[in-house]
Amino acid sequence: MKSFFTSTDKENGQQAAYLFIIANVIGFVTTGILGEEQPHPLVQFLWGLGFAGIALSLKSLLGENVPENWREGTTFLAAAIFTANSLTIGSTGNEFGPFFFFICLNMIALYSVSEGVIANIWRYNLLVGGVVGFLISGAGTFFGYELPESLMPVGLVVWLTLILGVGVGPLLAWNKR
Question: What pLDDT, on the 0 to 100 scale, is given for residue 2?
Fold first, then answer.
C-alpha cells in the first residue's frame, strides 16, 4: 500500500493515462453502445481524475521543453480540470462547453511543447482534436452554435483524438523513459 502513495512521477503518469483511457472506453460503451444519455457519475469522476493526473505528470515528462513559468501551470491545469469536471458531473446542459473549450486550448499548447517527447502521431492527434474542438466548442460557448446531428461524427473524431493525444501519447512517452 505504501508504494501506491510513494510512486514515482513515471508510475503516476502511467496510472493516470491508463485510468483516463479506461474511463473513456467505459464511457463510450455506456453512451455509444448501450445508449445511455451520459456515463455513470463514477466514470465521469474517474475521467477527470485521470486527466488531472496526466496534467500533473506533464511537468516531469516534458522537462526542459516547457518554460519555467509554464511548468507551475500544470498544477493549475490539473486543478482546473478536476474542479470543472467535478462541477459538470451529472449535468445534461451546455455546462461542458466552456470546460471543453479550455481542454482543447490546452491540447494545442501540449502539441506545441511536446516535440521530441511525445511521438508525432499522437501530437498530431492533439493538434487536430484541439483545433477542431476549440472551434466547435468556442462557437457553442460564445455564439450558441450547436453541431447539427449530421455532423456528429466530427464530435466522435474530436473525442477519439482527445483520447489518443492526451491518454495514449503521454503513456507511450512515459514507457520510453
Answer: 63
Q: DSSP string covering the chain, please? A: -HHHHT--HHHHHHHHHHHHHHHHHHHHIIIIIS--SS--HHHHHHHHHHHHHHHHHHHHHHGGGS-HHHHTHHHHHHHHHHHHHHHHTT--STTHHHHHHHHHHHHHHHHHH-TTTS-HHHHHHHHHHHHHHHHHHHHHHHH-----GGGHHHHHHHHHHHIIIIIIHHHHHHHH-
Closest CA to 9 of 44, 72, 59: 59
Residue 92 has pLDDT above 90, yes or no: no
- Say what the pTM is: 0.87
The phi, psi pair for 140, rounded to 5°, reads -70, -40
Q: What is the pLDDT of residues 19-56, one digit of tens each?
A: 999 999 998 888 877 777 788 889 989 999 999 999 99
User: Would you say the C-alpha torsion 123, 46, 17, 81 has a positive or negative sign?
Assistant: positive
C-beta separation of 85 from 33 below 8 A: no
For the chain, the distance separating the N- and C-terminal CA atoms, rounded to the nearest angstrom, is 24
Residue whose grid cell is 510512486: 7
